[in-house]
Amino acid sequence: MFNHNISIDELTALFLADTPLIDVRAPIEFTQGALPGAINLPILNDEERARVGTTYKQQGAEAAVKLGYTMISGDVKQGRMQQWLDFIQQHPQAVLYCFRGGKRSQITQQWLKEAGIDRPLITGGYKLARQFLISTIDRFHENHRLLVITGPTGSGKTRLLHEISHRYPALDIEAIARHRGSAFGGMGIPQPSQVDFENQLATNLLKLSQNAQTNPVLVEDESRHTGRVCLPASFFEHMRSAEIIWVDEPVEARVNNIFEDYILTTPIGQAHQIRKATTFPDLAGKTGATPYQQALTLFDQYAAALQAISKKLGGDRFQEVLLDLDFARSDFENKNEIRTNKVWIEKLVKYYYDPLYLGSLQRRQVNPCFKGSKQAVIDYLHTRKAT
Length: 387
Description:
Layout: H1 11-16, E1 21-23, H2 27-32, E2 38-40, H3 46-59, H4 61-71, H5 74-90, E3 95-97, H6 103-114, H7 125-138, H8 140-143, E4 146-150, H9 157-163, E5 170-171, H10 173-177, H11 194-209, E6 217-220, E7 225-226, E8 229-230, H12 233-240, E9 243-247, H13 251-264, H14 267-276, H15 280-283, H16 290-308, H17 310-313, H18 315-335, H19 341-363, E10 370-372, H20 374-383
Parallel strand pairs: 1-2, 1-3, 4-6, 4-9, 5-6, 9-10
Antiparallel strand pairs: 7-8
Helix pairs in contact: 3-4, 7-11, 13-19, 14-16, 16-18, 18-19
C-alpha cells in the first residue's frame, strides 16, 4: 500500500485501511495511548528508555544514542528484530511509528532495511497522528450531521442502530467505550484508556465520513461519560445540538430487553442453559464450572453497582431492590431459575432509570422530530428523505 514514509495527508488512507502498525515506543508509552491497529514491539523497554533519557539530559544526544546502540546489540537486538520480522511476515503492509517519527522508528526502519525488509514509518510519529485524530473529531461537525436516537433505558436504541445501519451510517459509542453507559453497564472487559477511546472514535468517524455525504450519522443519546471514558467536548456539543428521534417502548418490552442484555446473554444465561442439561449436583453448582462461577461473580457486580447508586435510589427502595436481587440470585443457585431477575430489573427501571433519564430530557427541553415504537422509528427512518 505505502512504499514511502507516511505524511499527514496520507493518514486518512492509513486508518481507513485498518493498516497494521508497529509501535516501537516503550510499553509505558503504549499503555497511555496508541494508534488504532497498533501492536507494541518496542526498540527500548521502559528501563532502557529511562536510562537513555537520563543520559540525554546529563550528557547530550550523542551520548544517549551511543548508549542506546550499546544496550540494543547482539542477542537483544536480534530478539527484537525477530519480533518485527515475524509480525511483518504476517502483516506485510505494516507501518512503523515512534513518538515523533524520530530516532527510534528511523533506526528500526534502517535495521529492517538491512535485513531486506523495507517498511515505511509515520512522519511525525504518534504525536502528529494523534493531532490528526483529534482534529478529525473536532471538525466532524463541519461537514456531517448527526441524528440522535433517544429514549428511556431498555428501549432498544443500540439494537436499532445496528438494524438500520444498512440504510444510515451509525456510530456505536458504547461499543467503542466497551461499556453500556449505565451503573450496570460494564461489559466484563476493561475499558480503553481515554486516549485510546478518542483515537478509536476518530477512526470510526473517518470511516463513517465515507458514507455520510447525504444521510446523517445515527448515534445513541449518551451522557458525556460512558463508564470512565468521556466524549470530547466538540463531539458532545455536536450531539446536543443535533436533531432527535425518540424511541417510545412500553415498560414490559424494555424490561425484556434489559433481561436479555444483562441476564440471558451473560454468564448467568449461559450457566442456566448448561445446568438445564445436567444432573442435580450440577444444578446446585457444586462442580465449580467456570460459567457458574462467572454468573455468581456477575451477581456480585450487580449488587456492587446497586450499592453505588443507593443514595440516588433512596434507602427504602435500595433495600427493596437489593432484596429482589438477592432473591433472584438464590433462585438461580437453588432452582436454576432466572426469570425472577425481571422483578428487580423492572423496579430499577421505574425507581431509578426513568426518573433520571426522563428528567434529563425534560431539562434539555428535547423536541423530537419523531416519536414512536422501535419499529415505528425504523419505518420512519426507511422512508425519511435525505436532506
